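Could someone model cobalt (II) ion with this protein?
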Amino acid sequence: MSQTLAVLGGITAEQFLTEYWQKKPLLVRNALPEIKNLLEPADVMELALDENINARLIKQKDKDPNHWSVKSSPLMKADFQKMPKLWTLLIQAVDHYSFDLAELWKKFPFIPQWRRDDIMVSYASKGGSVGKHFDFYDVFLVQGHGHRRWQLGQMCDADSEIVAGQPLKLLPEIQIHFDEILAPGDLLYVPPGLAHYGVAEDDCLTYSFGFRMPNVAEMMDRVSDKFAVDQLLKNPLTDILREKMTSVGQISQTELEYLKTKLLTQLQNPAVLEDALMSLMSESKYPENIPEAEAIGSGDLEQALDQGYSLMLEPASRLLYTEVETKLLFWANGEGICISDDFAPLLKQLADGNLILLDEKLARPEMLEDIVNLLNESILMLLPAVDTE
Ligand code: SIN
Ligand code: CO
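Reply:
Sure, complex below.
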């Protein structure tokens, strides 16, 4: 991976990862020109009213723009009546609704899929913003329709002062060292913790390609879920060897050490830890966006062979794998999945974002069964020939 990338303004992925990723911002003019006309403000308004969408409508009072209100989805037409001058509409996971937008993740091949969160779109009227703030989050902000002025400031952390009494986590001030107007197709990478403030210059759509990291508390939670269902571990432990009497109310340090050792011994089990972590990482943040599949059988699939269909990952699903030597293990949407050894290398390609042509190479019964199961669970989807041209 040493060629320069247009999305990074002509630097290599390695240079970006060493110099910028999680460290400092990067502005790239005309990095993603294909995003310009992908959605219009009217499309975003329509999406906001979809009952499954995850959206927030943020308003600032006309008389006091420092007074904010947030209405979360479901949003109704009535929520858009009597609008103040300054407002922003945020819609999460638009990549689950637009294949063209989901395809743009491929412009960021230097960050693995498990780190991806979703693509949020924000639509704001002239002057609209979500305030001065910071996120614990890597984000590529890409300008779609219209223009937005971005100001960047100081690095913040959990101790940074937050404005009291507002429904958003806002910073009282930012110390501006960057001030630029982004036009359609321009990109700004903002590392976690960096204060930022984006104000719409006109009717404006901004896409946030966001990247998530799990926290230790949620990892612990999944690990404990996995151990909690292990029947063997439900057996009471045998008691510590007792030779002399101890105080009745006390648990001695020796007893506590014995219990802790039993616990820590189990925690050394790498298979359970990996299963817990992979399950967590493959969880969808918006499982309600995973569409109900049209039930299909192996016979239907056999008939579809050589008709020009391709298999691809369903954009709202998450499919991840580990590879140890030649052994591939898969997790999708929060659970481990079993598939035949023959299909594993192809499923790996699908998880890497490639399309697989549905042809005779897949004609073996166990492969067809794997594909049918994955299609019926909406982990994979079929793309008609016309869409791949
Ligand atoms: C926005 O596009 O208005 C908000 C994006 C962000 O600040 O992270
Ligand atoms: Co932000």
